[in-house]
Write a structure and sequence with these properties.
The protein is an alpha+beta fold. It contains two helices and six strands. A hairpin with a 2-residue loop joins strand 4 and strand 5.
Length: 98
């Protein structure tokens, strides 16, 4: 079972990288979305965007829009700010790591 804690969340200048403890495939995406966004108080999903290899979830929190990305082939998961100066990403990182 996937777990999310501060040890597998990494903040970079451009995004918040989430290193999942187990490999995942398309069937796992919805439970992973729930796992990640349950850590973000007040997050509201705007849109699900399924793709061939990447699955994106647009969500809003802290009066800003973000995109939660899952890439099956590379087994990657990250959050990026849709627009803004990056300060919102810093705030989101602090909120997730509580």
């Amino acid at each position: 079972m996937q777990q999310l804690n501060s040890e597998n969340i990494f903040f970079t200048q451009d995004n918040i990288e989430i290193r999942l403890s187990e490999s995942f495939d398309d069937e796992d995406i919805q439970s992973l979305v729930n796992l990640v966004l349950n850590e973000v108080d007040g997050a509201k999903i705007i849109e699900h965007i399924p793709g061939a290899d990447r699955y994106n979830v647009r969500f809003t929190v802290l009066a800003s829009n973000f995109v939660l990305n899952f890439e099956v082939y590379s087994q990657s998961c990250w959050i990026e700010l849709e627009s803004g100066d990056g300060e919102e990403l810093v705030k989101l990182n602090q909120l997730i790591k509580k």
